[in-house]
Write a structure and sequence with these properties.
The structure holds two protein chains of two kinds. By secondary structure, chain A is mostly helical. Helix content of chain A is 77%, strand content 0%. The chains are: A mainly alpha, B alpha/beta. At the A-B interface, helix 3 of A face loops of B.
Chain lengths: 191, 306
C-alpha cells in the first residue's frame, strides 16, 4: 500500500505541469532563474512530501496489523527513504513525460489512470508474485512498481536480499533515465 | 553602454522565418519600444531575448552576458511580463506576490515591505485577500505586472503589459514605469498602443514580417517618416462638383466623402491648401471647418507596415 500510494501521489506531478501550462505559469517560471530540471525536481519534491506523509499515515494506521513482523533498524529505515525518493522521481518523471506528450487534460487523465492502474494490478502491490500464472509473473518484473514495493517491504520487514539490492539498482537506473527524458521533453515544449 | 546587443538574430520554424536577421542595440536606463502588427515577430523576439527559446542563428548579448551560452545567468538579472496571462488561480493577491518573491529568494522582511508598496502602487490593497481566479482580467494583469517588481532586476521585458487595463490604470502603470527608469532600470516594451510608445519610449523599433524596418526616437521617426501632412476641410453644405474641381491639383491625394468632407494628404500641404482654398473661393463654396492633423506615430506605423 505504501509503494502504491507513493506511485499514486506522483499523479500530481503531471497535474501540476498541466495547470502551470494552462495558467501561463510554466512559461513565467521558465523565464526566471530556473532550469527545466529545477522545475521537475521541485514538482517531484512536492509530491515526494505528499507521498511520504500519506505513506507514513498508512504505516501508522497499519502498524497494529504488521506489528509482530516489523524489523526496523538503522539499516532498513534508509532503505524505506530510498524507496520513497526513487519511487517519487521514477513515477513523477513518468507522469511528467505523459503530461508533455498529451495535448488535452481529458486525454492526460485517461492515459495516466490506465497506465497507473496497469502498474498497480500487474505488480506485487496487492498480491505476491508466487502462485500467479507464468506470463503474469514475468510481467510483474517488467513493472517498476514491483521493484518499489519489494524494496519497501524489505525495508519494513528487514528482509534485505541480494535480489532486493539488484531491484534497488534497477529502480535507480529507470528513475534516472525517466528523469533525463522528462527534462528533455520539457525543454522541447513550445512557448 | 548597451544593455541589449543583438546581431543577425534569426529564428525559423520549419520554412517560416519568425525573426529574420535582426540587429538591435538598447542603451541602459532607456525604455526601448518594440512595435509591430500581429504576427510581426514581436513575441518571438522577446522570447529570444529572455532566453525562453534559442535562436536559429545570430548572436545575443544581454547585460554583457552571452545569452546563448549562459541563459541562466541572464535570467537571474531580468524580469519578464509575458503577453499571456500567468497566475495561480487559488492564490490570493498577496500570497501570489509573496510566493513570487520567495521564488526569487527575496528575504521575508523585504518581501513584506515590497508587497505592501506594490499593493498600494498598483491599487491592489482592497483586493489583497481575493483569489486570482476571482479577479477581473484587468486586476489579474495588474497583479501579473506588480509581481515582477517583487524582485530586483537590471532589465525588464514587458510584452503588452497594458492589455486589459482601463485608461486610468494604464496611465498609472506607465508613470510607475517612468519612475522606475529614473532609478536605472532598462525596459524593453512591446505594445500595439502607439500613444503609449510615444509617451514612454526613448527609442522605438518597428518590426514587420520578422524584419526591423526602422529604429529611432519617436520624434526622429516623425521627422523622417512624417513629412506628409493631413488637412481636413468640412464644407458648409453638400457640393457634388468639388471632386472634379480639385482633380487638376497635382502632388497630393484628396479624399472626398459624403459631399462635405475633404481630406488632403501631401508633403507640401501648405501650398496645396492655398490652391484648394482658391478653387473653393472662386466657386463660392463655403467652408465650415478646417484643421491640420499633426503627424503621429500611428500614421507612421500604419504607413510603414503597409
Amino acid at each position: 500500500m505504501i509503494g502504491f500510494n507513493i506511485m499514486n501521489s506522483t499523479l500530481i506531478s503531471g497535474i501540476l505541469i498541466w495547470n502551470d501550462r494552462k495558467h501561463g505559469m510554466f512559461e513565467q517560471i521558465m523565464s526566471g532563474p530556473f532550469t527545466r530540471s529545477h522545475y521537475i525536481l521541485s514538482n517531484i519534491f512536492t509530491i515526494g512530501i505528499v507521498g511520504l506523509v500519506s505513506a507514513s499515515l498508512i504505516a501508522v494506521v497499519g502498524y497494529p496489523v504488521f506489528f509482530d513482523s516489523v524489523e526496523f533498524s538503522l539499516f532498513t529505515i534508509p532503505i524505506l527513504i530510498f524507496g520513497a525518493i526513487t519511487g517519487s522521481i521514477l513515477f513523477g518523471s513518468l507522469a511528467s513525460i505523459i503530461s508533455t506528450r498529451i495535448h488535452s487534460s481529458e486525454g492526460f487523465n485517461v492515459i495516466i489512470n490506465t497506465v497507473f492502474l496497469f502498474f498497480a494490478f500487474v505488480s506485487t502491490a496487492f498480491y505476491p508474485a508466487d502462485g500467479v500464472p507464468e506470463p503474469l509473473r514475468s510481467a510483474f518484473y517488467l513493472n517498476p512498481l514491483t521493484y518499489l514495493v519489494d524494496v519497501i517491504r524489505a525495508g519494513i520487514f528487514g528482509t534485505i536480499t541480494e535480489f532486493v539490492i539488484l531491484e534497488m539498482l534497477i529502480l535507480v537506473v529507470i528513475a534516472s533515465a525517466l528523469f533525463v527524458i522528462a527534462s528533455k521533453l520539457l525543454t522541447k515544449l513550445d512557448f | 553602454m548597451s544593455c541589449i546587443k543583438v546581431n543577425n538574430l534569426s529564428k525559423s520554424y520549419g520554412s517560416i522565418k519568425a525573426v529574420d536577421d535582426i540587429g538591435l542595440s538598447v542603451k541602459s536606463g532607456h525604455v526601448f519600444g518594440f512595435l509591430g502588427p500581429n504576427g510581426a515577430g514581436k513575441s518571438t523576439t522577446i522570447k529570444l531575448l529572455t532566453t525562453l527559446i534559442s535562436p536559429s542563428s545570430g548572436s545575443l548579448s544581454i547585460l554583457g552576458i552571452d545569452a546563448i551560452k549562459n541563459p541562466l545567468d541572464v535570467r537571474h538579472k531580468i524580469g519578464v511580463v509575458l503577453q499571456q496571462p500567468s497566475y495561480e488561480p487559488t492564490l490570493t493577491v498577496e500570497k501570489a506576490l509573496d510566493k513570487y518573491g520567495m521564488m526569487w529568494n527575496v528575504p521575508k522582511s523585504e518581501r513584506k515591505k515590497r508587497m505592501n508598496h506594490l499593493l498600494e502602487d498598483f491599487d491592489l490593497a482592497e483586493i489583497r485577500k481575493k483569489r486570482n481566479e476571482d479577479l477581473s482580467i484587468g486586476q489579474r494583469r495588474r497583479v501579473q505586472v506588480a509581481r515582477e517588481f517583487m524582485h530586483d532586476m537590471d532589465l525588464l521585458f514587458l510584452d503588452e503589459p497594458t492589455a486589459g487595463l482601463d485608461p486610468s490604470a494604464r496611465r498609472k502603470l506607465l508613470d510607475y514605469l517612468k519612475n522606475k527608469v529614473k532609478t536605472g532600470l532598462t525596459i524593453f516594451y512591446t505594445t500595439h498602443i502607439l500613444t503609449e510608445a510615444e509617451y514612454l519610449c526613448d527609442e522605438i523599433a518597428i518590426i514587420n514580417k520578422g524584419k526591423i524596418i526602422a529604429v529611432d526616437s519617436p520624434s526622429a521617426l516623425k521627422t523622417r517618416f512624417g513629412k506628409e501632412k493631413t488637412i481636413k476641410i468640412h464644407l458648409f453644405e453638400k457640393q457634388s462638383q468639388v471632386s472634379s474641381l480639385l482633380s487638376e491639383i497635382s502632388d497630393c491625394k484628396i479624399d472626398f466623402e459624403n459631399g462635405t468632407n475633404l481630406t488632403i494628404h501631401s508633403e507640401q500641404s501648405e501650398l496645396i491648401l492655398l490652391q484648394v482654398l482658391k478653387i473653393l473661393n472662386d466657386n463660392n463654396i463655403e467652408i465650415e471647418d478646417l484643421s491640420a492633423v499633426p503627424t503621429n506615430l500611428e500614421d507612421i506605423f500604419l504607413k510603414m507596415v503597409k
